[in-house]
Write a structure and sequence with these properties.
By secondary structure, the protein is mainly alpha-helical. The chain is built from 45 helices and twelve strands. About 1% of the residues have low confidence.
């Protein structure tokens, strides 16, 4: 984890990928804590910083939410930064290398210390690295609280002082020619920094530009007089006197740099080079920045890192008039890795040093090499590097030189200790892939089969080497591009990505990365080719290897370092498709390893879903324990399931087709409640369908019931009520024949809920009571069913009966199984108490329900509570607070694939707009809510929206429209038994009749 505050706020993982941050106030809070890193920041200071003026009543609760979200963000990647709660406030704890502010202060201190003892080259190196950590103004793009303005001012002063100290060191090293131009820019930007003006005057004087130095003094003198009414300080006046009399003290006495040849060692430019606009722009920006002289292009074999480096080097060669050096370090080729002394010998000879004078030990050769480059501008390309240790002796010491390193390894040591900037080079973007293939195949042929060209890019994972080899195969063949793509896509090997007269193939470059791996890393890489889907975790790797998870981290680090797999946030790893095919090709058949993987999925998913309640209807086969018990990060089962969803879905579909088939229906049954909470519809239907097919193929009736249960829930969630009813009834009948009472009660409960949503309250009451009877007879938990029966009574207008049922739910012991029913009943009771004129009790119920839903991560429940809170605030005349809650509910609903919540969200926002007298916005939101309710056949919500829209038309002076809507609403309400809605409709009709007379 790396936190960057010296510029726009950024949080990056260990591989320097940016992590997505939350709301503005969360980012401001993180920046405030970072600026006071390792120092307690009081809650009062935070609240004052986050809100201008007095904080709102919800400020403390909001702050707790922000802190919770930030903790979750900081925990997505191990190490370095943690947010702690302390008495009176919060403390951001960070390792010295995890936040750029601490790194900056350390480097600045080291640079000044080196400068104090005359180690000017080291001082300039450290100070330049420190200044380079700044990417712009602190908190750029965010509101800056007053509480941290002094901290920002201190850092800005220190940054300028570091720049000035660095310039001082460079003047000592005799770099005045280069500095004269740089200081002209700096003095125009920081007009009143007299030290910068003095350095500019000295640099000009030492460059033989005495008249310009004197003119610069007059410029600063006039500037200070006009703007500040003062004369230059004593130091600047004394320097002026020295320049006037050409004082020898000002001269630089260092020896001139050693003269030599001008090497031009770049390989030929790459033919048909295409794309890489972002990477080229990054290199262009980095080469002119003052903060680094080393960059590394890292990535998987075949990504075109060398082509990119060489192409860019030819583009900028004129910027380096003293030459370009190139060395292939052979770390990944067929040769032995190049030793630093070999490369240094070659470089020194290219720079003009006679062979007999070239040192034979690395340390002396490095010192000689750097001495020869002092004061020169040379571009150095170090290709195919294996490690930071191999590269470090080859780095020039002069800041006028620039080095580009390419490697398949991550080279984190080069970044950490040498100030290198690293760019991860991935595949081409699709547009550039198409452009490259068009250039290689010819426009006529490519334009004739654009779809096949696009598919060829996908099959080749957009790797430049694979694309070039594939294009060569297509060009040499007589068939169509589509024919070749079809054969390549279905091939189990990489043979179709090779050409006869080219020794390099996709397989050979992958071989050169695979073969140096240790045996366990090689085995894990092979087994990863068997994993369905596009990602895996350390626990999955441990299951494949059949080793404890603690032993697998080092193996994964080896694969990441070799760019054979890529580390993602939250403990996820991936490999691109061609590497996966290469791994699968090497793996062969490993059924035991694949079974261990699937058993680990079942074991861990069972652990996660058990937190939702052990009383849920699920298949309960004995599970094989292949790993130690899963520890859910922060105890958050939903977050863990979110992170594993793609892997689990891929496992279900794979197992259903290839076996073992029981894995498909067991995982499906485990995931059913998760899918209900998250509403990830494509995955939900894919899993249910695959599990159903597997169960039918095996003739397992209980497995078929479980899969049908999941499928029925999915159909219900998208408003396909008749299909859901059919599936539920088939499953209920099968349960009765198989004597599966727990599953039967769960299915009856859901069927009753479907009928309730359709407005068929008699049927809903029937099925829910049948479910309740089964639960009573078997001693099962009744809370969820009673909660829904209470809601049926509420919609019937039987508030006392509803109050009784929901109160019974709350009387039951609150456990993991009953927590959701408790929250549901509390939310329902808040509505009942509000309708009965008990706002205090309603608010209490709302508050408790909201806390429970947030604890469970149930966003749909949270949105429902916010809707009810909006109505409560509206009843009490607090329109602003009502609108705040209503908009929060609608915002949450937009993120959920739940039409009921979304329709209700629009309806409550409309209700507040109507109270504000904004008829246009009220009408718009009511119509949106009505449309959603109508197409999803949610009768209760539809009637509610119809009555609201009728009231809006009535208030806006459109009685005819109001009358039609109100009449429709009354008809539906009476037919369904919605007594409260029916009474509301009759009252509005009566009022419309009075107005019309």
């Amino acid at each position: 984890m790396r936190l960057r505050v010296l510029g726009p706020l950024e949080v990056r993982d260990r591989d320097e990928r940016p992590l997505s941050m939350g709301r503005v106030k969360e980012r401001v809070l993180l920046a405030m804590l970072a600026l006071r890193v390792n120092t307690l920041l009081s809650k009062e200071s935070i609240l004052a910083g986050l809100w201008e003026g007095p904080p709102p009543r919800s400020a403390t609760a909001n702050l707790a939410s922000y802190v919770s979200n930030l903790r979750r963000l900081l925990q997505t990647d191990e190490g370095g930064v943690a947010l702690e709660t302390r008495a009176g406030g919060y403390l951001l704890v960070a390792d010295p290398d995890s936040i750029d502010l601490l790194v900056f202060e350390r480097l600045a201190g080291e640079g000044r210390q080196a400068q104090a003892v005359g180690q000017y080259a080291l001082a300039v190196e450290r100070l330049t690295q420190a200044a380079g950590l700044w990417r712009g103004p602190v908190m750029d793009g965010l509101p800056v609280p007053d509480v941290v303005r002094p901290d920002i001012a201190r850092l800005e002063d220190l940054r300028l002082a570091v720049v000035e100290d660095s310039i001082e060191g460079r003047l000592k090293l005799g770099q005045h020619d280069t500095l004269a131009g740089e200081l002209a820019v700096l003095t125009s930007r920081y007009e009143f920094r007299e030290r910068l003006w003095g350095q500019r005057i000295l640099a000009l004087y030492r460059s033989g530009r005495q008249s310009e130095a004197l003119a610069a003094y007059q410029d600063v003198r006039r500037l200070l007089a006009e703007h500040l009414g003062i004369e230059p300080g004593a130091a600047l006046r004394a320097l002026h006197e020295q320049v006037l009399r050409s004082d020898p003290v000002l001269d630089h006495s260092a020896a001139p740099p050693v003269a030599g040849l001008v090497p031009r060692q770049l390989p030929p430019a790459i033919g048909a080079f295409t794309g890489r606009a972002a990477e080229l722009a990054w290199l262009d920006e980095t080469v002119v920045a003052a903060d680094t002289t080393v960059v590394a292009l890292v990535g998987t074999a075949g990504m075109g890192k060398t082509a990119l480096a060489v192409h860019w080097a030819h583009r900028v060669a004129s910027r380096f008039p003293d030459g370009q050096l190139y060395a292939d370090l052979h770390r990944h080729g067929t040769h032995d890795p190049a030793a630093p002394i070999e490369v240094l010998t070659s470089f020194l000879r290219a720079l003009g040093m006679p062979g007999e004078r070239i040192p034979t030990d690395t340390e002396t050769a490095t010192a000689t090499y750097r001495s020869m480059l002092a004061g020169r501008r040379v571009l150095v390309i170090l290709d195919n590097a294996g490690s930071a240790e191999q590269v470090r002796p080859l780095l020039p010491g002069d800041p006028g030189c620039f080095t580009v390193v390419t490697s398949r390894r991550r080279l984190t040591g080069l970044m950490a200790l040498d100030g290198a900037r690293v760019c991860a080079v991935g595949g081409l973007i699709p547009q550039d892939t198409s452009r490259l293939l068009t250039r290689l195949l010819g426009a006529d042929r490519a334009d004739a089969e654009p779809a096949a060209v696009a598919e060829l890019g996908d099959v080749c994972a957009h790797l430049p080497l694979a694309l070039r080899l594939a294009a060569a195969r297509v060009a040499a063949a007589e068939g169509s591009i589509a024919d070749y793509v079809s054969r390549l896509a279905t091939a189990r090997t990489l043979d179709l990505l090779a050409v006869d007269d080219e020794p390099r193939t996709v397989r050979t470059v992958f071989d050169s990365s695979y073969e140096p791996l240790n045996p366990m890393a090689q085995r894990l890489f092979r087994l990863l080719g068997l994993v369905p889907g596009h990602g895996f975790t350390p626990r999955a790797a441990a299951a494949l290897l059949d080793v404890p998870p603690v032993r697998v981290e080092a193996v994964l680090n080896e694969l990441v370092a070799a760019s054979m797999v890529e580390r993602r946030a939250a403990g996820q790893f991936v490999m691109h498709d061609l590497l996966r095919r290469y791994a699968e090709e090497k793996a062969g058949s490993e059924p035991a390893a694949l079974r261990r993987l699937f058993m680990s999925y079942l074991q861990d998913t069972e652990t996660a879903v058990a937190t939702f309640g052990s009383a849920l209807a699920r298949l309960n086969p004995p599970l094989q324990k292949v790993l130690p018990e899963l520890e859910l990060p922060g105890g958050d089962a939903l977050a863990w399931l979110d992170s594993q969803r793609d892997c689990l879905v891929a496992a279900v579909t794979y197992a259903a087709e290839h076996g073992p088939r029981e894995v498909a229906w067991q995982l499906c049954d485990q995931l059913r409640v998760y899918f209900w909470l998250r509403r990830c519809l494509p995955e939900w239907f894919a899993v249910a369908g695959a599990a159903m097919a597997a169960a039918v193929a095996e003739g397992d009736v209980e497995a078929e019931i479980a899969a049908r249960h999941c499928l029925a829930d999915a159909q219900w969630s998208v408003g396909r009520y008749e299909r859901a009813i059919d599936e539920y009834e088939l499953a209920i009948s099968a349960c009765e024949h198989r004597n599966l009472p727990r599953r039967q009660a769960s299915l009856q409960h859901n069927l009753g809920s479907v009928y309730r949503e359709l407005g068929r309250l008699d049927q809903a009451h029937k099925w829910l009571n049948e479910a309740l009877e089964v639960q009573r007879s078997n001693g099962f938990n009744e809370s969820a069913t009673r909660a829904n029966i209470g809601t049926v009574y509420e919609e019937m207008g039987a508030l006392q009966d509803a109050l009784r049922e929901h109160s019974k739910v709350l009387e039951l012991t609150r456990t993991a199984e009953t927590k959701r029913a408790h929250a549901f009943s509390l939310d329902a009771l808040s509505v009942i108490h509000r309708l009965m004129g008990r706002p205090d009790l309603a608010l209490t119920c709302n508050t408790e329900a909201l806390a429970l839903y947030r604890e469970m991560g149930d966003r749909a429940g949270e949105a429902s509570v916010m809707e009810n809170l909006a109505s409560l605030h509206l009843d009490q005349g607090d329109v602003d607070q009502a609108m705040s809650c209503a908009k929060a509910a609608l915002d949450m609903a937009k993120d959920l694939a739940n039409p009921r919540i979304y329709a209700c969200g629009h309806t409550i926002v409309a209700k507040v707009h109507l109270r504000q007298g904004d008829h246009r916005e009220a009408e718009r939101h009511y119509e949106l809510g009505l449309h959603l309710a109508h197409i999803n056949r949610m009768s209760y919500v539809e009637v509610d929206a119809q009555l609201g829209l009728a009231a809006t038309h009535h208030a806006a002076g459109r009685p005819d429209l109001a009358l039609d809507l109100c009449t429709q609403a009354l008809h539906t309400a009476e037919a369904s038994g919605f007594q409260i809605h029916a009474a509301t409709a009759r009252n509005l009709l009566a009022e419309l009749s009075v107005r019309s007379t």
